Amino acid sequence: MRLADIIRFGFRASTGYTARTFLMLLAMAIGVGSVVVLSSLGESAREYVVNQFSSLGTNLLIVLPGRSETVGGPPPLLGVTPRDLTLTDAEALQRSANIRYVAPISLGAAPVSYGAREREVTILGSTAQLFFVRQLTMGQGRFLPEGDITKGSPVCVLGYNMQKELFGTVSPLGETLRIGDYRFRVIGVLAKKGESVGLDMGDVVIIPVASAQALFNTSTLFRIMVEAVDRDAIFRAKKTILSIIRDRHDGEDDVTVITQDAVLATFDKIFTAMTLTVTGIGAISISVAGILIMNVMLIAVSQRRSEVGLLKAIGAPEGNIITLFLVEAVLLSLVGAVLGLLVGTCGVWVIGLIFPNFPITMPLWSLLAAVAVALVTGLVFGVLPAMRAARLDPVISLSRR
After folding, report:
1. Is residue 125 classed exposed, middle or buried when 0-12, 13-18 and 19+ CB atoms within 10 A define those classes?
2. CA-CA 20 to 30 A from 168: which of 174, 178, 296, 357?
3. What is the domain count for the chain?
4. Strand ranges inside 117-181, DSSP E
5. CA-to-CA distance for 362 and 349, rounded, in angstroms?
6. Transmembrane residues, as ranges (predicted)?
7. Which domain holds residue 361?
8. What rounded mean pLDDT belongs to the chain?
9. Is residue 173 part of a domain?
């Protein structure tokens, strides 16, 4: 038989039993659609986390007080912090040739008021170099001024949302607002920017780090953000940071230095594993659809005994019979896969509408993998019905017994 005849035969056999064909197409479409949606969610989550960390800056290192290790004893079994990070520690790091920017961070919350408007706001204390480390952009005015980081000036920079809430459409530049018990003059407003690793820069007020320490009555730092001079210098910068802090802290290794690349690599492994896992779950649903195809086609063999008997009676070899049934299974799988891609695309589109801030994307590999698995599943699970049809006795088949 010619290939065109085989395909025509399989198409007519599929359309001859609409209820049976509909069930098989539905099962395959659901399986393929689930693979597309689940793999898209996993891949999009990975890209979202990578973008979030990338928005922090490039060549970034974060210095945290305390060691990332456990110690013996009762819970919580966490490493102790012999000495906190201070502004003088941050100043010492600035002298390294492997480090371009150093931004000490002091973080807390305080009431911010202007006129009759007041709300509790996240206060971020830092220096002028935070602007470059975090890759910020200004909407109005200027950022924190350069100068002695141990001497805080009464100036502040507002996040985009804070400016809208406190001043509305009026320009805040030069205006004075109250933060806790202190007064600060507004010198700038950040440009609108989304969240970055859970911190929305639009909802913060940035003040000099020394002013933040006075406001919160502390001499310690929340962390120190460091930018290496280039990507190749990240490892050297990490060794330098550990060495400088060790010398300043009486020989104690009492800080943890996290590199941006290490964090991204960890998250990448986690989300890659998660994507493969949920894709595997979707592939199981395709296998279930394949089992349905096999069972329905086994029933179809019984329904089409006279048809198979006639083919064998006119001399069709077993190979042709097997090919006819396999082509029918593959056609059903292919059409089901195409419908599944449409279902998956619609599902991803709906998710994008429900969560507009989540960058949902469909990776090309998931589309190709879903179609490939569907075709292989249809072929594999179509073998048994095809072989059963090929073994039918033509005389018994034609006699309908």
Report:
1. buried
2. 357
3. 2
4. 117-126, 138-141, 155-158, 176-179
5. 10
6. 21-42, 276-301, 322-352, 364-384
7. 3-52+265-398
8. 79
9. yes
